[in-house]
Write a structure and sequence with these properties.
CATH class of the largest domain in chain A: Alpha Beta
Structural class of chain A: alpha+beta
Number of domains of chain A: 2
Oligomer: homodimer
Number of strands of chain A: 11
CATH superfamily of the largest domain in chain A: MoaB/Mog-like domain
Order of helices and strands of chain A: HHEHEHEHHEEEEHEHEEHE
Largest interface: A-B, 76 and 74 residues
CATH architecture of the largest domain in chain A: 3-Layer(aba) Sandwich
Radius of gyration of chain A: 23 Å
Distance between the termini of chain A: 27 Å
C-alpha cells in the first residue's frame, strides 16, 4: 500500500516476501492489490476483498504517525467501525518511546496527536507489539476472515508476521505443505513444450506445471517448474520426480535437452 | 498476472516499470492487481477494474502458447465477446516463425493449435506486433476505457509499450508532467516530522509530500519526497524548491538536519 508503489518508485518486495512465506506455510495467495494513500481506495479495495471471503487479508504500510498513513482509518471505514484509542496499543507505544529515551535516541517525549494516532483502531481490533519499530500491528478477527495490518517498513513487517501471524497461517492450512522441482529445457521453443506440459499435467492431476521462457521465444531456453501440495513429504517428492522424468523424456524425444535446476533458497 | 507472482517466486518488476513509465508520461496509476493463471480470477478482476472506469487497464503476462496463458480468454469472458482468429495477428505470428527459420532457430513450423491460440482474440481487438517475441500485444478500445494486454516477458512488454502505448498515454495525459524532489532528514523521529509535513502541505496545495523512514523509527533517518504535476517545468520546479526550503527550515528548527538527495534516474 502506498503512492510510492503506484508511481514506480518502490518495488513491492513486501508483497513478494509475504506471498512466498504464505505459500510455503501451506495457504494459497489468490490476489495481491496495491492502492495509494487514499482513504476511499483503501476502504473500497478492502470491501471488495472481504466480498471474496478469504481466510486472511493482509495489509502492509500506512500504520505510521503521518497524515498519509491511512490504513487503519480505511479499515474502520470499510467495517463501519469507528476509531478509538486502544489502551493496550497506547501502552506499547509509550513503552517504545521510553525505550528510545533509555537508549539515548530521544531526550523526552510527549504523546502528541501524531503518536496517539498509532494507537487508534476499531474496537474489535487487537494490537500486536512491533519488536523493531513503533507502530503496533493490528489484527481483526471477523467471522470468515482475519484482517491483519502490518507496517510497511520491511523489517517491522517481517518481525510482526513471524512472531504473531505465521502460526495462524500454518494452523489454517492444516497439515499441507508445498513442494517444488525445477528443470531447464533447451533447444525447443515454448510452443513445442506447451503440448508436452499439457499431456504430463493431464496424467498427473495433483501436480501443477508452469513454463517460464527465459528470454524471448527465439532463444529456446525454458525454465519449467513443477509444484505440488501434500501432507506427506515422500508422497510429494515421488510425484515431483515422476513428473520430471516424464517431461524430460518427452522433451528429449522432440530434440530438446533438459537439466535439473538446484533451488537456491 | 501469473501464479509465479502469487507464490512469491517472481518479483513483479513489470508492474513497477509500468507504474514509473505511466507516471512520468503524466497519468496517475490508481491500482495494481495481481491474479493467478485462472480464468475466473482474471475476468472478475478485469470486470471490477472496468467498473472503476479508468482511461486504461494494462494487463501483462498470459499471452503465450501454453494452456496457462489465459489472459485473452479472461478478457473475452469479461467482455462477453467470443474469441476468434484475428487474421492480422495470425499473419504476425506466421512472419515470426518464418523469421525464426531464416535465422536457423527452427527448421520448420506448423500452425499448431498452440500457436494459433496466440492469434485468437475478441472481434473488436487489435493486435500489436511484438518486436522481440512471438505473441502479439492486444488493444481493445471501449467507450471509456482502453484495455491493453502485453506479454509477461519484460523485454517484449517494454518493446510493445514503448512502440504502441506510450504515445496513447501521453496524449491522454494532455500537457501535464510529473516533477519530483527528494531530501534526507536526520536527527528527528518521524512523528516529529509528521506535523511539519502537514503544515507545509497545507501551505502548498499543489504539492504532495511523502515521508519514508529508512529504518525502524528508532534510527531517525527519513527520506522526504516532494511531488507535483504541472504543465510548465519552471512552475513545477519553483513549487518544489519552495517546499524543500520550507521543510528544511522547520526540520532544522526542531534540531534535525537536512540534505538534498540527487536523483539517480
Amino acid at each position: 500500500m502506498g503512492n510510492e508503489l503506484l508511481i514506480g518508485k518502490t518495488l513491492d518486495t513486501n508483497a513478494h516476501w509475504l506471498a512466498k512465506r504464505i505459500t510455503v506455510l501451506g495457504l494459497k495467495v489468490r490476489r495481491m492489490t496495491t492502492v495509494g494513500d487514499d482513504l476511499d481506495e483503501i476502504s473500497s479495495a478492502l470491501k471488495e476483498a472481504l466480498g471474496r471471503k478469504p481466510k486472511f487479508i493482509i495489509l502492509t504500510g500506512g500504520l505510521g504517525p503521518t497524515f498519509d498513513d491511512k490504513t487503519i482509518e480505511g479499515i474502520a471505514k470499510a467495517l463501519d467501525s469507528p476509531l478509538k484509542i486502544n489502551e493496550e496499543a497506547r501502552r506499547m507505544i509509550e513503552e517504545k518511546y521510553e525505550q528510545y529515551i533509555r537508549e539515548g535516541k530521544i531526550r523526552e517525549y510527549e504523546l502528541t496527536p501524531y503518536r496517539i494516532k498509532m494507537a487508534k483502531m476499531p474496537e474489535i481490533a487487537e494490537p500486536m507489539p512491533n519488536p523493531v519499530g513503533t507502530a503496533p500491528g493490528v489484527k481483526i478477527t471477523l467471522n470468515e476472515t482475519t484482517i491483519i495490518a502490518l507496517p510497511g517498513v520491511p523489517e517491522e513487517m517481517k518481525a510482526i508476521f513471524d512472531e504473531y501471524i505465521a502460526n495462524l497461517i500454518r494452523k489454517a492450512a492444516g497439515d499441507v505443505t508445498f513442494f517444488e522441482a525445477a528443470m531447464l529445457s533447451t533447444g525447443i521453443v515454448e510452443s513445442e513444450v506447451a503440448p508436452i506440459i499439457d499431456e504430463v499435467m493431464k496424467n498427473n492431476p495433483y501436480v501443477y506445471i508452469k513454463s517460464h521462457p527465459k528470454a524471448a521465444e527465439k532463444v529456446p531456453k525454458i525454465e519449467i517448474h513443477v509444484y505440488t501440495t501434500a501432507e506427506k513429504a515422500d508422497v510429494a517428492k515421488s510425484r515431483l520426480s515422476n513428473v520430471v522424468i516424464q517431461l524430460s523424456e518427452l522433451i528429449e524425444s522432440k530434440g530438446g535437452k533438459t537439466t535439473p535446476i538446484k533451488r537456491s533458497d
